Amino acid sequence: MSALRVSRLLSDHMVIQHGKPVHLWGEASPGAKIHVKICKEESAPAPSRAGETAADPDGRWSVTLPAMDPGYERYCIVITDEEGGEIEIGDVVVGAVWYASGQSNMDLMMQRVADRYPREIRESDFPFIRSFKIQEHTDYHGPLSEPETGQWIVSCPETILDFSASAWFFSTSLQKEIDMPVGYLHASLGGSHVAGWMSAEMLANATPAAPDGYPALLEEARRYSDDSYIASQIKNNEKVTSDWDAELNRRLSQDGSALSEEWKKIGVPCFFKDIPELNGFVGSLTIRRRFTLTPSMLEDTRKDGSRIRIFLGTMVDRDKVFVNGRFVGETLYQYPPRKYEIPASLLRAGENEVEISLIVEHGAGRLTPEKDYTIFCENTNEIVDIRTHEGFYWCVDLSGEWEYCIRAVMPEPMQEQDFINWHPTGLYNGMTAPCHAWPIEGVLWYQGESDAGMKLPDGRDVDYTDLLIRMIRGYRKAWQDEQLPFLIVQLPNFTVDLCEETSWPAMRRMQEAALSEPGTAMVCAIDLGEDNDLHPHDKREIGERLALLAEKLCYGLDIETSGPRISDAWLREWSFGGTDNRVLYLVCEHADGLTIRDAGKGRKISDLVGITDDGERIPLELHGIFSELKQIAVKLPTDRKIKEVRFLDSNTFTGGLFCNDAGLPMGPFCCELQHVRLATKE
């Protein structure tokens, strides 16, 4: 009996990287001869490529065939051995293959943003856009040679919800410009740190920033290579959760009925910290509101194609939702939007009630402001736009006055758990390393939130620039391509879970500093986040900006890919009418059509700040913008010594953004005045 098998990556619908040798591999009986041929599916039997080899003593075999040109022709790969085994792989195409990785914003699937992009979901038949998704898996013993999960899927309405939103929009935008199939290997995990996606070798290498490498991270990885230690951590996690929930349930059964009539008013949405009784609250409470439906609205719920849904923003931390006393949905952690369907039979003409049973685990409860709190009936026979209510039969606004009742108060917040899959080397070994045998065009990297403001196990601040450069070089070595392009998404605007000490501005600077490594480029996303959501939904623009970078860096298109950037600066000091003036002139590149754009917070520039020698932050005013000269002028105080001028040095922006005629924004910058030349004018 034949023992012939191939890697998971070699499967129906796969995309072969154009312009690089074709690598095929698998297992067979030791010493068995393997024959491989690649044929056009619709053509004569003459193969486009063919080769043979023999399995080594361990039963492994590998064949490398000459590179292939990209195109929309479909191929079939036939692999046979001398024992009668045969494997046929169909619908194979040749194009651009990318590796898409990072944390939750890369892992955010089209399912999450389906309400934002209903037309794109319906019109997602792109037979030459394909994805290979590797499920979350860590291994602290060493790198795996094969992915343990995954299959190639083709973009269409039946599969689109399982595509990474950022990578899908990147792929569709890129394909329009380069006119070839686009596939991507998707390996990402929410909450993960950069060190989790790095090998032990990458963490051990000497660099000027860390000559001894990162022994504390390596020791952490070594600790998690002990299976018994991991088992104990998992057991402790389970105990932490079960003990806390058991105590909560005990208090609910003891106190719930006694508190059930103590209803107080609450405005929804809200932060609990703004409500004296709920500031720091840990435990369980019920929040309810009544709403009215007319008989005609109830009739709409019975129409063919109608669907009733309730949106309740996001909440911290866990909720169960009931409508007229019947359970309609629950979410077990804070980030997913609460979107539940309601059977029409639950609703009635006249007064109805929605009730939220909310558990707050860590004292930072909220029903997130500036989110949708509505119940509505949509016509699923049409394209439904949640933002404009197009395709709605009716919609009832649920924001405003609700009532709340505390059910149980916990004495302590739930203890933090050990997320086993976030530790150094684990994700690299289990998800990235298995992909190195598959040639790729480049890497898409969307990560950094979890490392912002973090410290290493030995107490040092995370030097994200050094870690990212180590990772880039390590990936290039592993993929045997020293020029492998690396495209990075810079952290966007975000505030809701942050204080300024969280250091997202510092993280953005460290991300940009990594661009000193050749063959890298970065998307400025300062205008693409949502201040109240760690997972912003505008993944189309993220994907399209990534595609712009790829089109220029990899395919030589003469296009603008950057917002305005500071290329030079000079100071002018003068007196006029008894008034002293001091102005910093910033000369910009990538600044054709330099202007100020309203990105949702007005056109007034309000994010310029000066840093004094003693670290004080002083707001600065825009003196002027000179589009034809591609210059920005900033007014400086004459009575204070400013050492740095910064722009966008906060977690979010508060006013207008500088941008060019390509619509791309200027990112955060820091201008050190000690390096600026002085010009004078009488």
Q: Would you write up a description of this structure?
A:
The structure is a single chain. This protein is an alpha+beta fold. The protein is globular, with a radius of gyration of 28 Å. Strands 2, 4, 5, 7, 8, 9, 10, 11, 25, 26 and 27 form an 11-stranded mixed sheet that branches. Helix 3 crosses helix 11 (539-553). The N and C termini lie far apart (94 Å). It is built from 11 helices and 38 strands.
Structural features:
single chain; 682 residues; alpha+beta; eleven-stranded mixed beta sheet; six-stranded antiparallel beta sheet; 11 helices; 34% strand
List the helices and strands and how they pair.
Blueprint: E1 5-6, E2 15-17, E3 22-27, E4 33-40, E5 49-54, E6 60-65, E7 71-81, E8 86-102, H1 104-107, H2 118-122, E9 126-133, E10 152-155, H3 165-178, E11 182-188, H4 200-204, H5 215-224, H6 227-259, E12 264-268, E13 270-271, E14 283-293, H7 295-300, E15 306-312, E16 315-316, E17 318-323, E18 326-331, E19 339-342, E20 350-360, E21 366-367, E22 373-379, E23 392-397, E24 400-409, H8 426-432, E25 442-446, H9 464-478, E26 486-489, H10 504-513, E27 520-523, H11 539-553, E28 565-576, E29 579-589, E30 595-597, E31 608-612, E32 617-619, E33 621-626, E34 631-635, E35 642-647, E36 657-659, E37 669-672, E38 677-680
Helix pairs in contact: 3-11
- Average pLDDT: 95
Q: State the helix count.
A: 11
Q: How far is the N terminus from the C terminus?
A: 94 Å
**What Rg, in angstroms, do the CA atoms define?**
28 Å
Residues in helices, as a percent range: 10-25%
Strand content: 25-35%
Indicate the structural class: alpha+beta
Main β-sheet description: 11 strands, mixed
Strand count: 38
Which spans have pLDDT < 50 for at least 5 consecutive residues?
A: none
What coarse outline follows from CA principal-axis ratios? Answer: globular
